[in-house]
Amino acid sequence: MSIIILHLLKQYGISYGYFRLFEYLTFRTMLAAITALLFVMIFGHPVIVALYRRRFRDTGGDYASLDASSKRGTPTGGGLLIILAAMLALLLWGDWNSAYLLVAVAAFLYFGLVGYLDDLQKVRFKSSLFGLGQMAKTFMQLLFIVPFALFFISSWNPVPAAWRTPVLLPFFKNAVFEPAPLLFAAFIVFAYFSIVNAVNITDGLDGLVSGPSIMTLSLYGIFSYILGNTVLSSYLLFPYFPGCGELTVFCGALIGALLGFLWYNTYPAEVFMGDTGSLALGGSLAALAFLTRQEMLFPIVGGVFVAMIGSSLLQEKVGMRLGRRIFLRAPIHHSLTHKGVAEPKVVTRLWIISILLTILAALSLKLR
Amino acid sequence: MKVLLTGGGTGGHVYPPLALLEILRSRFPIGDVLYVGIRGRAEERIVPAHGLPIRYIDSAPWSGLQPAAMARALFRIGRGVLQSIPILLKFRPHLILAAGGYVSAPITLASFLLRPFVRSRLVVDEQNLYPGLMNRIASLFAHAVLVSFPETPYYIWNQRCVYTGYPVRDVFTTAADRGAIRARLGVPPDALMLLAYGGSMGSRSINRLIAESLPELARCGRRIVLVHAAGLATGDYDAWADTRTLAQTRGGIALAPVPETDGLVGYSSDGLLEYRLMPYLHQIVDYLQAADLVVGRAGAGTLAELAALGKPAIVIPKRGLPGDHQELNAISLAERGGCEVCFERPGPDGVDYVVHREFLDLLLALLADPARLTRLGEQAGQFFIRDFKEKICDTVGRLLEGREVDYVLEFELPKGLKIQKQIDALTAFLRNEPPGSLYRRYYGIQVDTDLKSTDWQIVNRGIKLCGALQRTDKVSELCGFFDSGNGFIRRNVLAAIRELEVDYGMVVNLVRRGLDDSYFEVRAGAAVLAGQYFDQLAGHADVLQRLRALAAKRFEVSDVQAAVIQVLPLFFPLDDYFKMVDRFRFARNVRLRQAILSGILRALAAGRIRREDMDRVRQFVKEILITTSSFKPEFSIRESYRELYDKLS
């Protein structure tokens, strides 16, 4: 909105002096983060109460049947807060002319909707739809991912034509090789789906998903800033993606919303984000990774997510075949709590690991 | 008003919509009626007999199919939907009554698709406690679901259930002179009348059970009239002929035909027992009115009729029906004290049977205790909803006028059934049940079938149930699974053995092999088992050797280490023990340190640490690193809430 106002002012020849600050990406990013953060902090409690009263509660239990050290019955679906806050911030401070922003927001909202339906189903139908729950969820996710992959190899993609399909590896300056577009689209479907579900599965302990997400978002924010900036991109020998800088604002808004959510979600949680939040986050992280063409960096910067989904898949698919556990518990964070590490400690430690990984990934900015 | 009825496959899905129609006729001006069914099923015979027009569509059963057959079924259901659309468009019903069975799927789906064009209200009728798959799907589109069990709303996929009760026929609700009926049937006033029936087709397990019980009933010293409706001959089972022979051979009662009827009658040698065997009871309600105790099936209809008349009953649910719904119906009524249940179990010849002794004990106990019979009858009567007609008419009326309906929003959670989903919750529940309780008996039968399965996950379930149900008779089978099963199975066998009282010779063997196992959870389980039998095992040098080796192993999974550390002080003298455990006193893993403490606590409780050694142990323990990471939170508001809640309820 701010951008539209500035455009209008410029059109009518009105000089806006200090307000040209609003043209600067970094300034808008900060404002977006602050807006989202304050929104969640202020409106968090009423939303939590509303969710609770609408029976958006974890495992549907009511407090009476539960013991005093259990968290079940906590309101869930708090991802709604994240979505509301981020969208408000983006409406105020985003430049909606950027195709990058539109795609990222589409992914964010669509996956939020899928997650919301899933949460709703858990609450409303008291059971997931006759075991098709997983299948229905997969189907709804693919309903976005497949068109996204096709869009990505098409000419509508805002990424410059030369950079749409070549495989870019971190720490390598030039493209390693260029696969056939459809092959690359298939890879997108696979990777997108994995990222979304990795983030979803990580959301198992209070505040666990927020830390690594914030780290990943910051790194992708930096990348999109550099890619969208002529000077920086040529200095760091990156390709120049005009308009990509708007993704920085998107990252800023999400970081702000997540920090605000953490305000309530940190141990012991007053609200869980539910699939609404974790799918929306996963969907937008995956979209960011592809739009900045840094998807190969995700296994490093999102190493925590990858470890979670990897361990969980091994335990379920391979373990069931073998007829034994492979890890003590899966995903790994449950393995850690099983070993006697307290929940808040596990969360903080995984954050630290995530910071380490992010620093490692950030090295790829210069070390190429 | 135009009404469309659907549902079918078996009589159980055809009669209810017809009954509903009769009830609605009394209140609403009903014009055209159309029945939609499948050719070649029960509705083709029944519906025209009631003088209703019927149309046929295509559909197919769904549950328990292979993927290929599922695709074919989906295709046929899709074709049914396409066939239903013109029917609905032409007939334009105001009200659709769907009573489940796969027949109703296409119509409900089509009515949902046509909602913008045909304004009809969809009412789904579910009589059983556990709704069939098609009814659960249909409930997604339904404006109201009529249920006759208070637990059913839990399983329905919407929140638009109305608890109306079962629409029984009028004869069951009109008052009758019981004495007169008994006199008409020729039952002496001082005799106990027993009625056994298994539906029109007959039930093999009830027929066998009754025939085999005849000698004992003749000996029990009471004057008894036993009316037994064996059922008509059908395809593979000639109920009538089979029962007649069984009653004469095993029952030892000579049967003579009764003039002018198709029944037979016989007497015991002292004449106290009068046994009337008939193929079919045309006036079942009279017999039910006259009876003092009923033995029957647990279909929703039978149970509702018993409850309407307030009759005490022993019900024998039919095994192996979709979702085990007869068992669940019976459990629900029995939990309210409205009937007694005998469960069927799978027989060796593929025929389900009830253990004769179990049934007979229950029957004789009931016959000897008239107060219990009265109580059963009264409690069953409370289960019946007397004003079901008003409720049904009211619901339909409100729907048609577009007014608010009283949906059930707060419903009863099915106690034992909800937990079926999670085996660990189920076993925990069963452990707290008293021996001989309904659920223990029900799952006791499941154990047998589970253990015979070829799917290891089902066998696994059976093994867990063995432990929870204290099935000591299954120990040798369990040991067999320990030899052949995968890691999970081996682990769970050990866990089950821990709960059972087992001969220790068997335990030694299991512990030895368990401690050597390649799977860590089995090693840990074996260590725990060893601790349980430490008295007898302490003399086995090889077991000690294995424990020592595990404790000394440099790289071992922490779960195993913790389990071993906990049992070490039970087996080894203090000096040895200190040496083995010393390195764990400062372990990074807090659970290992905790294991030392709980191990010593256990040894103290078992009296393995002498008074004069206390000081040394104290010195040893003093040094343990007790910084911690794990803790148990206590949310004070929840605690207060719970305390208050408990006080208020």
Give structural notes.
The complex is a heterodimer of chains A (368) and B (649). Chain A is mainly alpha-helical. Chain A has one domain (2-62, 70-365). Helix content of chain A is 64%, strand content 0%. Chain A is built from 14 helices and no strands. Chain A has helices at residues 2-11, 25-53, 79-93, 99-124, 133-153, 181-202, 210-227, 230-235, 246-265, 274-291, 298-301, 303-322, 332-338, 343-362. In chain A, α3 runs antiparallel to α4, α3 (79-93) crosses α10 (274-291) and α4 (99-124) packs antiparallel against α5. The longest helix of chain A has 29 residues, at 25-53. The radius of gyration of chain A is 21 Å and the shape is globular. The two termini of chain A are 38 Å apart. Residues 60-66 and 127-132 of chain A have low confidence and may be disordered. Chain B has 649 residues and is an alpha/beta fold. Chain B folds into 4 domains: 3-165 and 388-401, Rossmann fold (3-Layer(aba) Sandwich), CATH 3.40.50.2000; 172-383, Rossmann fold; 422-502, no CATH class; 517-525 and 534-649, no CATH class. Chain B is 52% helix and 10% strand. In chain B, the strands form 2 sheets. In chain B, strands 10-11-12-9-8-13-14-15 form an 8-stranded mixed sheet, with helices on both faces. A 7-stranded parallel sheet of chain B has the order 3-2-1-4-5-6-7, sandwiched between helices. In chain B, α3 (67-91) packs across α4 (104-113). The A-B interface holds A 63-64, 66-71, 124-127, 129-130, 268, 322-325, 328, 339-342, 345 and B 133, 136-137, 154, 157-159, 456, 485-489, 519-521, 557-559, 589-591, 594, 629-636, 638-639, 641-642, 645-646, 649.
